[in-house]
Amino acid sequence: MYPVLFRVGHFSVTTYGVLLATAVFVAGTLFARALERHGHSRDDAWSVVGWALLGGLVGAKLYYVVLQQDLGALFSRGGLVWYGGFIGGAVGAAWTMRRRGLPALRALDALAPAAALGHAIGHVGCLFSGDSYGLPSDLPWAVAFPRGMPPSTAGNLRDVFGVDVPAAIPDGTVLAVHPTMLYSALILAALGTGLWWLLKRNPPAGVVFGAYLVLAGAERFLVEFLRAKDDRFLWGFTTAQAIAIGLFVAGVLLLAWRGRVGEAAATGDSGGQALEPAQARGGAGAARYDPRPGRPGRGRQRGRPRHPVAAGGAGLGARQPGAAGPGAGAGRRSRPGGSTTSRSAPRPAAGGAEACIARRRGPTPGKTLPVPGDRHPRVP
Question: Which helix (H) or strand (E) holds 12?
Answer without folding.
Answer: strand 11-14
